[in-house]
Amino acid sequence: MTVPAPKPWILGIAPYTPGRSTTDDGRKVTKLSSNENPLGTSAAAKAAFDAADRTLERYPDASAAELREALAAHYDLDPARIIYGTGSDEILHLAAGAYAGPGDEIIHVRYGFAVYEIATRRVGAEPVVVPDRDYATDVDAILAAVTDKTRVVFVANPNNPTGTFTVRSEIARLHAGLPDDVLLVLDQAYAEYLSPEEDDAGLALAMTEPNVLVTRTFSKIHGLAAERIGWGYACPAVIDAMHRIRAPFNVTTAGQAAAVAAIGDTAFVDATRAHNDTWRGWFVEQIDAMGNAGLRPVPSKANFVLVLFEGSLSADAAYHGLMEAGYLVRWLPGQGLPNALRITIGTEDETRGVIAALRALTDR
Ligand code: PMP
């Protein structure tokens, strides 16, 4: 029997496999593996979600008009230059799909977001993976990797899974060094965790530079991961190209309503950022204090910390030990990080619990 042959280039993709919040023996564990908001979502967003039109037989607003207007008003943007997606994941796929294909190259850093490679291979393009500089994005390495086949560069800022941040002047230097026909995708999934002074000016760049696309999400600080809503900002030509291949009706009615309310609830965003600053700071201090056991935190500006295990306790053993203690974190051997765990900053109790469990493991 002959079966349909998939495109050879997709066979190089390892499917994205998130952690599960139950163990093999069915125990529920606390999920600190997907960088979700431990404080939940904004009460206003939840109320808007609950009050949203529940008509099941009608499609949502395909143009996401209210959502775009609300984003434009909040960030002082042109609503016509906003695209929306089923998570910002979809926008990353749209960028690759609109600008690259077989024979083309897409650059991302070695320790980068897993979807970059998936989006690249999906369209038959070749991922060009560049080295980091002590886990941080190395602008020179990216610029050195550019060839006449380069079509897209993906940079997350802050970066996942490292949490590292690339300052505004470095982003400007990266953009200035790229050919005009290369699309620079600045993935700002964690941008709201930065203080306003730390802003990398990505949106400002996307306002004036035709080859810059900024992507954002409601999954992280807004706590709306279940609804899958992301958005992007770029010049009209880039937005037009991505709309051509976007799935129709790609953001749900209730999701759009929740997102509009979430944008307005700046107090919730500020409270989440403050919580994250406090507990990430505490978490990092505690990991530093376990330095003699070989634990080392990578400096993070996001809602998670990458912890390196350079002593006798391996990341593998720590991952399983934390699971035993009731905490699911992210171990990323498949992404070249067999000696590290990425741990989301949870509630106070969760954060203290993870540290207590790690201390017990290092004391063993
Ligand atoms: N970019 C980065 C860097 C991420 O970490 C994530 C979520 N893990 C995303 C994009 C996608 O998030 P979403 O599709 O939920 O918007």
From TrEMBL:
InterPro entries: Aminotransferase_I/II_large, HisP_aminotrans, HistidinolP_aminotransfase, PyrdxlP-dep_Trfase, PyrdxlP-dep_Trfase_major, PyrdxlP-dep_Trfase_small
Gene Ontology molecular functions: histidinol-phosphate transaminase activity; pyridoxal phosphate binding
Provenance organism: Sphingomonas ginsenosidivorax
Aminotransferase class I/classII large domain ranges (all copies): 28-357
Assembly, per entry: Homodimer.
Pathway per the UniProt entry: Amino-acid biosynthesis; L-histidine biosynthesis; L-histidine from 5-phospho-alpha-D-ribose 1-diphosphate: step 7/9
UniProt keyword Amino-acid biosynthesis, yes or no: yes
Reaction(s) catalysed by this chain's protein: L-histidinol phosphate + 2-oxoglutarate = 3-(imidazol-4-yl)-2-oxopropyl phosphate + L-glutamate
Matching Pfam families: Aminotran_1_2 (PF00155)
Protein name per UniProt: Histidinol-phosphate aminotransferase
Top EC class, one word: transferase
Sequence similarity: Belongs to the class-II pyridoxal-phosphate-dependent aminotransferase family. Histidinol-phosphate aminotransferase subfamily.
GO biological process: L-histidine biosynthetic process
Superkingdom per UniProt: Bacteria
Keyword Ribonucleoprotein in annotation: no
Modified residues (N6-(pyridoxal phosphate)lysine): 220
Keywords, comma-separated and alphabetical: Amino-acid biosynthesis, Aminotransferase, Histidine biosynthesis, Pyridoxal phosphate, Transferase
NCBIfam families for this protein: hisC
Cofactor(s), names only, from the UniProt record: pyridoxal 5'-phosphate
EC number: 2.6.1.9
